[in-house]
Amino acid sequence: MSITVFIRYQLDPFKRAQFEEYSKRWLTIIPKCGGELIGYFMPHEGTNNIAFALISFESLAAYEAYRARLRQDAEGMANFRFAEEHKFILAEERTFLRKVVL
After folding, report:
1. Residue 1 has pLDDT above 80, yes or no
2. First vs last Cα of the chain: how many Å apart?
3. Could you report the per-residue pLDDT of 53-98, keeping only the tens digit for each?
4. Do the domain assignments include residue 5?
5. b/e string for 65-81 if b means 16 or more Cβ within 10 A?
6. How confident is residue 101, by pLDDT bands cut at 50, 70 and 90?
7. Any transmembrane segments, and where (predicted)?
8. For the segment 10-31, what is each residue's pLDDT rounded down to a tens digit?
9. How far is CA 56 from CA 4, 47, 82, 88, 102, in A?
């Protein structure tokens, strides 16, 4: 059974450009560490402080292995530090989803 991690970000609306830079960095880091990146989604119109990311994995075990690889990845850790230093992410929520099939 595959799972998709749905990440909801609450952003500082005045720092959306920094979040976009952060997101673009993940476009190569996530696949390198084993995630199937569906995409990052930025506010366009309407609510200006909410963004999303979707990443799929074969299983929860594959997700855990990905997280371990991510903690060892220099680019990934640098991106986490970038977010902490600039404080553009105010809150982050993760939901683990499975696809409904017949």
Report:
1. no
2. 13
3. 999 999 999 999 999 999 999 999 999 999 999 999 999 999 999 9
4. no
5. ebeeebeebeebeebee
6. confident
7. none
8. 999 999 999 999 999 999 999 9
9. 4, 26, 24, 24, 20
> Angle, to 10 degrees, between the axis of helix 16-33 and the axis of helix 60-72?
110
CATH number reported for the structural domain that contains residue 80 in this entry: 3.30.70
The single residue listed with the structure tokens 């976009």 is 20
Residue 43 has φ and ψ, to the nearest 5°, of -60, 140
User: Which token pair is 49?
Assistant: 């402080």
Residue 41 lies in a domain: yes
Expressed as residue numbers, the domain containing 58 is 13-94
Residue 47 lies in a domain: yes
Q: Is 8 within the bounds of a domain?
A: no
Tens of pLDDT, residue by residue over 39-52, are: 999 989 999 999 99
Pair of tokens at residue 96: 């683990």
